[in-house]
Specification:
The protein is α/β, with parallel strands linked by helices. The chain has one domain: Maf protein, CATH 3.90.950.10. It contains five helices and seven strands; from the N terminus they run E-H-E-H-E-E-H-E-E-H-E-H. Strands 1, 2, 3, 4, 5, 6 and 7 form a seven-stranded mixed beta sheet that branches. The chain is elongated and about 55 Å long. It starts with 5 loop residues before the first strand and ends with a helix.
Length: 176
């Protein structure tokens, strides 16, 4: 079954892959939004706000095309409620992996749809358990470069799959 065409306000190859897998006909809109965490903002509120901001920014760029716009955001959250975004450099990516090693964290995936003057929001929360990572495993993974543009510094659908002991929730949500 083919769905009506929509717009995806995201450059994420993982989101494109997920929409393609379920047969959605879409076009990509490149939008830029400030992804800074606001003071006292909860991780859930953060993920929903960024997803909605992306969808709204995409909607604003269209002007004359009135198809729905999808925005999404994924946040990796430590038990302390610290949000791990995309690592800014190799040192931060290493710090992320050290924090995730031998621990459970949450992955929040928010999806927003904007159409005309309406919007819809959904949030999926998944629990992910990492195995204990050796320094050799961390160094090896960092050398692959795979996690550099991913929330939390890892890709569950890639080489980092070997670090995952279990997932409670949505695999596709963790994927992004």
């Amino acid at each position: 079954m083919k769905f009506p065409k929509v717009y995806l306000a995201s450059a994420s190859p993982r989101r494109r892959e997920l929409l393609t897998q379920i047969g959605v006909d879409f076009s990509v809109l490149n939008v830029a939004v400030d992804e800074s965490v606001l003071a006292a903002e909860t991780p859930s509120d953060y993920a929903k706000r960024i997803a909605l901001a992306k969808a709204q920014a995409g909607w604003e760029t269209l002007k004359t095309d009135y198809r729905p716009v999808i925005g999404a955001d994924t946040a990796v959250v430590l038990p302390s409620q610290q949000i791990l975004g995309k690592p800014e450099n190799l040192q931060q990516a290493e710090a992320f992996l050290l924090q995730l090693s031998a621990s459970r964290h949450q992955v929040l995936s928010a999806v927003a749809i904007v159409w005309q003057q309406q919007h819809w929001l959904s949030l999926q929360i998944s629990d992910v358990q990492f195995k204990k990572l050796s320094s050799a495993e961390i160094d090896w993974y960092l050398a692959t470069g795979e996690g550099k543009d991913k929330a939390g510094g890892y890709a569950v659908q890639g080489l980092a799959a070997m670090f995952i002991e279990n997932i409670k929730g949505s695999y596709s949500g963790v994927m992004g």
